[in-house]
TrEMBL record:
CDD domains: OYE_YqiM_FMN. Residues 157-177 are annotated as: Disordered. This is NADH:flavin oxidoreductase/NADH oxidase N-terminal domain-containing protein. Residues 167-177 have a biased composition (Basic and acidic residues). Keywords: Flavoprotein, FMN, NADP, Oxidoreductase. The keyword Glycosyltransferase does not apply. It comes from Mycoemilia scoparia. Residues 51-402 form the NADH:flavin oxidoreductase/NADH oxidase N-terminal domain. It comes from the Eukaryota. Its cofactor is FMN. Gene3D superfamilies: Aldolase class I. Residues 157-166 have a biased composition (Polar residues). One of its GO terms (molecular function) is NADP binding.
Protein backbone atom coordinates (compact mmCIF):
# COMPACT_ATOMS: atom_id res chain seq x y z
CA UNK A 1 0.00 0.00 0.00
CA UNK A 2 1.36 3.41 -0.91
CA UNK A 3 1.63 6.31 1.50
CA UNK A 4 -1.26 8.17 -0.15
CA UNK A 5 -3.51 5.10 -0.18
CA UNK A 6 -2.72 4.52 3.47
CA UNK A 7 -3.40 8.12 4.52
CA UNK A 8 -6.67 8.20 2.56
CA UNK A 9 -7.95 5.17 4.48
CA UNK A 10 -7.27 6.31 8.03
CA UNK A 11 -7.94 9.50 9.90
CA UNK A 12 -4.72 11.46 10.43
CA UNK A 13 -5.02 11.03 14.19
CA UNK A 14 -5.03 7.23 14.03
CA UNK A 15 -2.64 6.88 11.09
CA UNK A 16 0.41 4.67 11.69
CA UNK A 17 3.14 4.49 9.06
CA UNK A 18 3.45 0.90 7.81
CA UNK A 19 6.81 -0.84 7.84
CA UNK A 20 7.78 -1.72 4.26
CA UNK A 21 9.85 -4.64 5.53
CA UNK A 22 9.12 -5.83 9.08
CA UNK A 23 11.83 -5.02 11.63
CA UNK A 24 13.61 -8.08 13.02
CA UNK A 25 13.55 -9.98 9.71
CA UNK A 26 16.61 -11.00 7.75
CA UNK A 27 16.98 -9.19 4.44
CA UNK A 28 19.72 -8.73 1.90
CA UNK A 29 21.25 -5.34 2.65
CA UNK A 30 20.44 -2.81 -0.06
CA UNK A 31 23.07 -0.71 -1.89
CA UNK A 32 22.00 2.17 0.38
CA UNK A 33 22.86 0.11 3.47
CA UNK A 34 26.33 -0.47 2.02
CA UNK A 35 26.83 3.10 0.91
CA UNK A 36 25.84 4.36 4.36
CA UNK A 37 28.29 1.82 5.83
CA UNK A 38 25.65 0.08 7.93
CA UNK A 39 27.20 -3.16 6.70
CA UNK A 40 30.65 -4.44 6.03
CA UNK A 41 31.23 -4.49 2.24
CA UNK A 42 32.26 -8.16 2.56
CA UNK A 43 29.01 -9.08 4.33
CA UNK A 44 27.00 -11.85 2.68
CA UNK A 45 23.50 -12.72 3.79
CA UNK A 46 23.78 -16.33 4.98
CA UNK A 47 22.12 -18.91 2.74
CA UNK A 48 20.82 -20.57 5.90
CA UNK A 49 19.19 -18.02 8.17
CA UNK A 50 19.81 -18.79 11.88
CA UNK A 51 16.73 -20.51 13.25
CA UNK A 52 16.10 -17.66 15.69
CA UNK A 53 15.22 -15.47 12.72
CA UNK A 54 13.26 -18.06 10.78
CA UNK A 55 9.50 -17.58 10.80
CA UNK A 56 7.21 -20.01 12.60
CA UNK A 57 3.68 -20.71 11.42
CA UNK A 58 1.16 -21.90 14.02
CA UNK A 59 -2.31 -22.57 12.60
CA UNK A 60 -2.94 -19.45 10.45
CA UNK A 61 -0.54 -17.16 12.23
CA UNK A 62 2.97 -16.64 10.89
CA UNK A 63 5.40 -15.23 13.41
CA UNK A 64 8.34 -13.53 11.70
CA UNK A 65 11.04 -14.66 14.14
CA UNK A 66 11.33 -16.71 17.33
CA UNK A 67 12.26 -13.95 19.77
CA UNK A 68 9.12 -13.39 21.80
CA UNK A 69 8.27 -11.10 24.68
CA UNK A 70 7.38 -13.06 27.81
CA UNK A 71 4.27 -11.89 29.69
CA UNK A 72 5.22 -9.38 32.36
CA UNK A 73 2.85 -7.70 34.81
CA UNK A 74 3.25 -3.95 34.99
CA UNK A 75 0.80 -3.38 37.88
CA UNK A 76 -0.20 -0.09 36.27
CA UNK A 77 -3.90 -0.39 35.42
CA UNK A 78 -7.00 0.94 37.14
CA UNK A 79 -10.11 -1.26 37.40
CA UNK A 80 -8.39 -3.62 34.95
CA UNK A 81 -8.29 -1.05 32.14
CA UNK A 82 -5.11 -1.14 30.07
CA UNK A 83 -4.04 2.41 29.23
CA UNK A 84 -1.45 4.28 27.18
CA UNK A 85 1.34 3.06 29.45
CA UNK A 86 0.59 -0.46 28.20
CA UNK A 87 0.37 0.76 24.61
CA UNK A 88 3.83 2.34 24.79
CA UNK A 89 5.34 -0.46 26.86
CA UNK A 90 4.16 -3.28 24.58
CA UNK A 91 4.40 -1.16 21.44
CA UNK A 92 8.12 -0.57 21.91
CA UNK A 93 8.87 -4.28 21.59
CA UNK A 94 6.80 -4.56 18.41
CA UNK A 95 8.51 -1.49 16.98
CA UNK A 96 11.89 -3.06 17.67
CA UNK A 97 11.28 -6.32 15.88
CA UNK A 98 10.03 -8.87 18.45
CA UNK A 99 8.16 -11.60 16.58
CA UNK A 100 5.44 -11.93 19.22
CA UNK A 101 4.54 -9.58 22.05
CA UNK A 102 2.66 -11.16 24.94
CA UNK A 103 0.58 -8.91 27.12
CA UNK A 104 0.88 -9.50 30.87
CA UNK A 105 -1.27 -11.81 33.06
CA UNK A 106 -4.67 -10.21 32.54
CA UNK A 107 -7.39 -11.04 35.05
CA UNK A 108 -10.47 -12.93 33.89
CA UNK A 109 -12.29 -11.53 36.93
CA UNK A 110 -11.63 -8.69 39.40
CA UNK A 111 -10.67 -11.10 42.20
CA UNK A 112 -8.38 -12.96 39.77
CA UNK A 113 -5.89 -10.09 39.61
CA UNK A 114 -2.58 -10.35 41.44
CA UNK A 115 -2.69 -6.68 42.46
CA UNK A 116 -5.29 -3.92 42.20
CA UNK A 117 -3.05 -2.55 39.39
CA UNK A 118 -3.23 -5.61 37.17
CA UNK A 119 -4.93 -5.47 33.78
CA UNK A 120 -8.28 -7.19 33.28
CA UNK A 121 -10.52 -8.55 30.56
CA UNK A 122 -13.74 -9.30 32.46
CA UNK A 123 -15.93 -6.70 30.77
CA UNK A 124 -16.50 -5.49 27.22
CA UNK A 125 -15.44 -1.98 28.20
CA UNK A 126 -11.86 -3.29 28.46
CA UNK A 127 -11.80 -4.13 24.75
CA UNK A 128 -11.24 -0.75 22.99
CA UNK A 129 -7.86 0.03 24.59
CA UNK A 130 -6.73 -3.57 24.05
CA UNK A 131 -7.74 -3.15 20.42
CA UNK A 132 -5.61 -0.01 20.20
CA UNK A 133 -2.64 -2.04 21.50
CA UNK A 134 -3.16 -4.91 19.05
CA UNK A 135 -3.58 -2.42 16.17
CA UNK A 136 -0.21 -0.90 16.92
CA UNK A 137 1.48 -4.29 17.30
CA UNK A 138 -0.01 -5.35 13.96
CA UNK A 139 1.12 -2.13 12.28
CA UNK A 140 4.69 -3.24 13.05
CA UNK A 141 4.04 -6.72 11.59
CA UNK A 142 4.37 -8.35 14.98
CA UNK A 143 2.00 -10.87 16.54
CA UNK A 144 -0.17 -9.79 19.47
CA UNK A 145 -0.65 -12.29 22.29
CA UNK A 146 -2.34 -12.05 25.67
CA UNK A 147 -2.02 -14.16 28.79
CA UNK A 148 -5.37 -14.64 30.55
CA UNK A 149 -5.12 -15.45 34.21
CA UNK A 150 -6.65 -15.97 37.62
CA UNK A 151 -4.35 -15.40 40.60
CA UNK A 152 -6.17 -17.77 42.99
CA UNK A 153 -4.71 -17.70 46.50
CA UNK A 154 -1.94 -15.32 45.42
CA UNK A 155 -4.43 -12.53 44.63
CA UNK A 156 -4.80 -9.15 46.32
CA UNK A 157 -1.18 -8.23 46.89
CA UNK A 158 0.43 -4.80 46.62
CA UNK A 159 2.40 -3.41 43.69
CA UNK A 160 5.90 -4.89 44.17
CA UNK A 161 7.70 -1.56 44.38
CA UNK A 162 5.54 -0.54 47.38
CA UNK A 163 6.44 -3.69 49.35
CA UNK A 164 9.24 -2.65 51.70
CA UNK A 165 9.22 -5.93 53.67
CA UNK A 166 7.50 -9.31 53.12
CA UNK A 167 4.80 -8.52 55.69
CA UNK A 168 3.64 -5.61 53.46
CA UNK A 169 2.76 -8.03 50.64
CA UNK A 170 -0.99 -8.31 51.23
CA UNK A 171 -3.27 -5.61 49.79
CA UNK A 172 -6.09 -4.86 52.23
CA UNK A 173 -9.28 -3.02 51.25
CA UNK A 174 -7.72 0.39 51.98
CA UNK A 175 -5.18 -0.40 49.24
CA UNK A 176 -7.90 -1.53 46.81
CA UNK A 177 -7.55 -5.22 47.76
CA UNK A 178 -10.26 -7.88 48.30
CA UNK A 179 -9.16 -10.05 51.25
CA UNK A 180 -12.68 -11.49 51.69
CA UNK A 181 -12.84 -12.70 48.09
CA UNK A 182 -9.69 -14.80 47.69
CA UNK A 183 -10.40 -18.25 46.25
CA UNK A 184 -8.44 -21.44 45.62
CA UNK A 185 -8.95 -25.19 45.24
CA UNK A 186 -8.32 -25.60 48.99
CA UNK A 187 -8.49 -23.18 51.90
CA UNK A 188 -4.73 -23.06 52.50
CA UNK A 189 -2.65 -19.94 52.15
CA UNK A 190 0.60 -19.85 50.17
CA UNK A 191 2.40 -18.49 53.25
CA UNK A 192 1.77 -16.00 56.02
CA UNK A 193 2.31 -13.08 53.67
CA UNK A 194 -0.62 -14.10 51.47
CA UNK A 195 -4.33 -14.12 52.32
CA UNK A 196 -6.06 -17.34 53.34
CA UNK A 197 -8.38 -18.31 50.47
CA UNK A 198 -11.85 -19.81 50.56
CA UNK A 199 -12.29 -23.23 49.00
CA UNK A 200 -14.18 -22.96 45.72
CA UNK A 201 -17.55 -24.65 45.39
CA UNK A 202 -18.33 -26.65 42.25
CA UNK A 203 -20.60 -23.82 41.07
CA UNK A 204 -17.82 -21.27 41.56
CA UNK A 205 -15.44 -23.48 39.57
CA UNK A 206 -17.96 -23.48 36.71
CA UNK A 207 -18.17 -19.67 36.97
CA UNK A 208 -14.38 -19.33 36.74
CA UNK A 209 -14.34 -21.63 33.74
CA UNK A 210 -16.87 -19.32 32.06
CA UNK A 211 -14.80 -16.29 33.03
CA UNK A 212 -11.81 -17.76 31.14
CA UNK A 213 -13.97 -18.60 28.13
CA UNK A 214 -15.52 -15.12 28.03
CA UNK A 215 -12.08 -13.55 28.45
CA UNK A 216 -10.82 -15.53 25.45
CA UNK A 217 -13.81 -14.33 23.39
CA UNK A 218 -13.00 -10.72 24.30
CA UNK A 219 -9.31 -11.26 23.53
CA UNK A 220 -10.32 -12.51 20.11
CA UNK A 221 -12.57 -9.47 19.60
CA UNK A 222 -9.75 -7.16 20.69
CA UNK A 223 -7.59 -8.54 17.88
CA UNK A 224 -5.14 -10.75 19.77
CA UNK A 225 -3.69 -13.37 17.41
CA UNK A 226 -2.62 -15.74 20.18
CA UNK A 227 -4.19 -16.51 23.56
CA UNK A 228 -2.17 -18.01 26.40
CA UNK A 229 -3.76 -19.51 29.51
CA UNK A 230 -1.67 -18.87 32.62
CA UNK A 231 -1.29 -22.28 34.23
CA UNK A 232 1.98 -21.59 36.06
CA UNK A 233 3.64 -19.92 39.05
CA UNK A 234 1.19 -20.94 41.76
CA UNK A 235 -1.79 -19.01 40.44
CA UNK A 236 -5.23 -20.59 40.31
CA UNK A 237 -4.80 -23.18 37.53
CA UNK A 238 -1.36 -24.12 38.81
CA UNK A 239 -2.87 -24.51 42.30
CA UNK A 240 -5.44 -26.92 40.88
CA UNK A 241 -2.78 -28.91 38.99
CA UNK A 242 -0.55 -29.44 41.99
CA UNK A 243 -0.73 -32.02 44.78
CA UNK A 244 0.88 -29.51 47.15
CA UNK A 245 -2.03 -27.05 46.90
CA UNK A 246 -5.04 -29.10 45.80
CA UNK A 247 -6.50 -31.27 48.58
CA UNK A 248 -10.00 -31.55 47.18
CA UNK A 249 -11.82 -34.85 47.27
CA UNK A 250 -14.18 -34.19 44.33
CA UNK A 251 -13.65 -34.54 40.57
CA UNK A 252 -11.39 -31.44 40.52
CA UNK A 253 -8.81 -32.66 42.99
CA UNK A 254 -7.08 -35.33 44.93
CA UNK A 255 -4.34 -37.79 44.07
CA UNK A 256 -5.41 -38.19 40.46
CA UNK A 257 -3.54 -35.96 38.01
CA UNK A 258 -6.49 -36.28 35.65
CA UNK A 259 -8.77 -34.77 38.30
CA UNK A 260 -6.37 -31.97 39.13
CA UNK A 261 -6.01 -31.13 35.43
CA UNK A 262 -9.79 -31.17 34.86
CA UNK A 263 -10.34 -27.44 35.29
CA UNK A 264 -7.56 -26.57 32.83
CA UNK A 265 -8.77 -29.15 30.32
CA UNK A 266 -12.37 -27.88 30.54
CA UNK A 267 -11.16 -24.29 30.09
CA UNK A 268 -9.19 -25.33 26.99
CA UNK A 269 -12.20 -27.20 25.58
CA UNK A 270 -14.45 -24.19 26.22
CA UNK A 271 -12.03 -21.70 24.70
CA UNK A 272 -11.45 -23.83 21.62
CA UNK A 273 -15.22 -23.68 20.96
CA UNK A 274 -15.39 -19.88 21.02
CA UNK A 275 -12.21 -18.79 19.24
CA UNK A 276 -11.50 -19.43 15.57
CA UNK A 277 -9.84 -22.74 14.74
CA UNK A 278 -7.21 -20.67 12.94
CA UNK A 279 -6.09 -19.04 16.20
CA UNK A 280 -3.22 -20.52 18.24
CA UNK A 281 -3.74 -21.37 21.91
CA UNK A 282 -0.79 -21.57 24.32
CA UNK A 283 -0.60 -22.71 27.94
CA UNK A 284 2.13 -21.65 30.37
CA UNK A 285 2.93 -24.36 32.91
CA UNK A 286 5.24 -24.73 35.87
CA UNK A 287 6.85 -27.78 34.31
CA UNK A 288 8.51 -28.64 37.58
CA UNK A 289 7.63 -27.22 40.97
CA UNK A 290 11.09 -27.87 42.43
CA UNK A 291 9.42 -29.29 45.58
CA UNK A 292 10.77 -32.59 46.85
CA UNK A 293 8.85 -35.02 48.98
CA UNK A 294 9.51 -34.36 52.68
CA UNK A 295 7.61 -35.00 55.93
CA UNK A 296 6.09 -31.56 55.56
CA UNK A 297 5.12 -32.05 51.88
CA UNK A 298 4.79 -35.84 51.48
CA UNK A 299 3.63 -35.83 47.84
CA UNK A 300 6.27 -33.41 46.60
CA UNK A 301 5.34 -31.12 43.75
CA UNK A 302 4.60 -31.86 40.10
CA UNK A 303 7.64 -32.82 38.05
CA UNK A 304 8.34 -32.73 34.33
CA UNK A 305 6.95 -36.29 34.17
CA UNK A 306 3.54 -35.04 35.34
CA UNK A 307 3.74 -32.07 32.99
CA UNK A 308 4.40 -34.32 30.01
CA UNK A 309 1.21 -36.24 30.86
CA UNK A 310 -0.76 -33.00 31.14
CA UNK A 311 0.70 -31.74 27.85
CA UNK A 312 -0.49 -34.89 26.05
CA UNK A 313 -4.08 -34.23 27.13
CA UNK A 314 -3.77 -30.54 26.24
CA UNK A 315 -2.39 -31.30 22.78
CA UNK A 316 -5.41 -33.51 22.06
CA UNK A 317 -7.71 -30.68 23.07
CA UNK A 318 -6.12 -28.22 20.66
CA UNK A 319 -3.32 -26.52 22.60
CA UNK A 320 -0.53 -25.61 20.20
CA UNK A 321 2.35 -24.63 22.45
CA UNK A 322 3.46 -25.14 26.04
CA UNK A 323 5.33 -22.15 27.44
CA UNK A 324 7.74 -23.96 29.77
CA UNK A 325 8.25 -22.12 33.03
CA UNK A 326 8.59 -23.50 36.56
CA UNK A 327 7.99 -23.07 40.29
CA UNK A 328 6.06 -20.51 42.26
CA UNK A 329 3.55 -22.75 44.03
CA UNK A 330 5.21 -23.64 47.34
CA UNK A 331 7.55 -21.81 49.70
CA UNK A 332 9.69 -24.98 50.07
CA UNK A 333 10.76 -24.87 46.40
CA UNK A 334 14.50 -25.11 45.82
CA UNK A 335 15.57 -23.37 42.63
CA UNK A 336 19.07 -22.48 41.45
CA UNK A 337 18.51 -19.95 38.69
CA UNK A 338 21.27 -19.48 36.12
CA UNK A 339 21.55 -18.94 32.36
CA UNK A 340 18.90 -21.00 30.58
CA UNK A 341 18.04 -22.88 33.79
CA UNK A 342 14.55 -23.87 32.58
CA UNK A 343 15.49 -24.85 29.01
CA UNK A 344 15.79 -28.54 29.92
CA UNK A 345 12.08 -28.54 30.71
CA UNK A 346 11.15 -27.39 27.23
CA UNK A 347 13.66 -29.84 25.77
CA UNK A 348 12.35 -32.86 27.69
CA UNK A 349 8.73 -31.98 27.00
CA UNK A 350 9.39 -31.47 23.29
CA UNK A 351 11.17 -34.83 23.01
CA UNK A 352 8.47 -36.70 24.94
CA UNK A 353 5.50 -35.04 23.26
CA UNK A 354 6.10 -33.98 19.66
CA UNK A 355 2.38 -33.11 19.39
CA UNK A 356 3.00 -29.68 20.92
CA UNK A 357 5.44 -26.90 20.22
CA UNK A 358 7.36 -25.49 23.16
CA UNK A 359 8.73 -22.15 24.26
CA UNK A 360 11.75 -21.86 26.56
CA UNK A 361 12.07 -19.08 29.11
CA UNK A 362 14.40 -17.99 31.90
CA UNK A 363 17.68 -16.05 31.84
CA UNK A 364 18.06 -16.06 28.08
CA UNK A 365 20.02 -12.90 27.50
CA UNK A 366 21.89 -12.86 24.18
CA UNK A 367 21.47 -13.85 20.55
CA UNK A 368 23.95 -16.72 20.56
CA UNK A 369 22.35 -18.39 23.57
CA UNK A 370 18.84 -17.86 22.20
CA UNK A 371 19.74 -19.16 18.74
CA UNK A 372 21.48 -22.24 20.15
CA UNK A 373 18.32 -23.22 22.05
CA UNK A 374 16.19 -23.24 18.91
CA UNK A 375 18.92 -24.57 16.60
CA UNK A 376 19.47 -27.55 18.92
CA UNK A 377 15.75 -28.26 18.92
CA UNK A 378 15.29 -27.59 22.62
CA UNK A 379 12.42 -25.19 21.91
CA UNK A 380 10.54 -23.76 18.97
CA UNK A 381 10.89 -20.22 20.27
CA UNK A 382 12.30 -18.31 23.21
CA UNK A 383 10.33 -16.08 25.55
CA UNK A 384 12.46 -13.25 26.89
CA UNK A 385 11.44 -11.34 30.00
CA UNK A 386 13.86 -9.15 31.90
CA UNK A 387 16.32 -8.78 29.03
CA UNK A 388 13.56 -6.99 27.10
CA UNK A 389 13.07 -4.65 30.07
CA UNK A 390 16.79 -3.88 30.11
CA UNK A 391 16.98 -3.62 26.34
CA UNK A 392 13.71 -3.14 24.43
CA UNK A 393 15.74 -3.43 21.20
CA UNK A 394 16.85 -6.95 22.11
CA UNK A 395 15.31 -8.56 19.00
CA UNK A 396 17.53 -6.34 16.83
CA UNK A 397 20.65 -6.56 18.99
CA UNK A 398 20.47 -10.36 19.20
CA UNK A 399 21.08 -10.38 15.43
CA UNK A 400 24.31 -8.49 15.92
CA UNK A 401 25.45 -11.21 18.36
CA UNK A 402 25.03 -13.55 15.38
CA UNK A 403 26.73 -11.21 12.88
CA UNK A 404 23.47 -11.02 11.03
CA UNK A 405 21.96 -8.06 9.18
CA UNK A 406 18.29 -7.65 10.08
CA UNK A 407 15.86 -4.95 9.14
CA UNK A 408 15.43 -2.08 11.57
CA UNK A 409 12.22 -0.03 11.71
CA UNK A 410 12.37 2.32 8.71
CA UNK A 411 12.19 5.40 10.93
CA UNK A 412 15.25 4.37 12.96
CA UNK A 413 17.52 3.18 10.16
CA UNK A 414 19.55 6.38 10.11
CA UNK A 415 20.42 5.86 13.76
CA UNK A 416 22.10 2.57 12.98
CA UNK A 417 25.77 2.42 13.94
CA UNK A 418 28.17 2.30 11.05
CA UNK A 419 30.20 -0.80 10.51
CA UNK A 420 33.15 -0.43 8.21
CA UNK A 421 35.05 -3.60 8.98
CA UNK A 422 34.39 -6.94 10.69
CA UNK A 423 36.74 -5.88 13.48
CA UNK A 424 34.56 -2.88 14.39
CA UNK A 425 31.95 -4.10 16.84
CA UNK A 426 28.50 -2.63 16.43
C1 LIG B 1 8.25 -7.65 36.01
C2 LIG B 1 7.88 -9.07 35.73
C3 LIG B 1 6.55 -9.42 35.60
C4 LIG B 1 6.18 -10.74 35.28
N1 LIG B 1 4.87 -11.03 35.05
C5 LIG B 1 4.53 -12.25 34.57
C6 LIG B 1 3.23 -12.50 34.09
O1 LIG B 1 2.38 -11.62 34.00
N2 LIG B 1 2.95 -13.77 33.69
C7 LIG B 1 3.89 -14.76 33.69
O2 LIG B 1 3.57 -15.90 33.32
N3 LIG B 1 5.15 -14.52 34.07
C8 LIG B 1 5.51 -13.28 34.48
N4 LIG B 1 6.80 -13.02 34.78
C9 LIG B 1 7.83 -14.04 34.52
C10 LIG B 1 8.43 -13.82 33.12
O3 LIG B 1 7.46 -13.95 32.10
C11 LIG B 1 9.58 -14.81 32.86
O4 LIG B 1 9.05 -16.09 32.82
C12 LIG B 1 10.66 -14.73 33.93
O5 LIG B 1 11.00 -13.39 34.20
C13 LIG B 1 11.91 -15.49 33.51
O6 LIG B 1 12.39 -15.02 32.28
P1 LIG B 1 13.59 -13.93 32.17
O7 LIG B 1 14.78 -14.50 32.88
O8 LIG B 1 13.80 -13.77 30.69
O9 LIG B 1 13.12 -12.67 32.81
C14 LIG B 1 7.20 -11.72 35.14
C15 LIG B 1 8.52 -11.38 35.31
C16 LIG B 1 8.88 -10.06 35.58
C17 LIG B 1 10.35 -9.72 35.70
Amino acid sequence: MTYSEQTKETSPASYIEKQVIPAGTVIDPTPVDYSLKFVDPDYKTPTKVPKLYQPLKIRNVTIKNRIWVSPMCMYSAKDGFANDFHLVHLGQFALHGAGLVMMEATGVSPNGRITPGCTGIWKDEHIPQLQKITNFIHSQESVAAIQIAHAGRKASTNQPWTITSPDKNKADTDKGGWPEDIVAPSAISYDKNHWTPKELTIQQIQDIKNDFINAAKRADQAGFDVIEIHGAHGYLISEFLSPVSNFRTDQYGGKSLENRARLLVEIVQGIRKVIPQTKPLFVRLSCTEWVESTNEVPTGGNTIKDTIEISKILAQEGVDLIDCSSGGNHPNQKISPGPGYQVFLSDELRQANPQVLTGAVGIIVNGKQANQIVEEGKADAVFIGRQFLRDPTFALNAAEDLDLFVKWPSQYTFGRKKRTSKTVKL
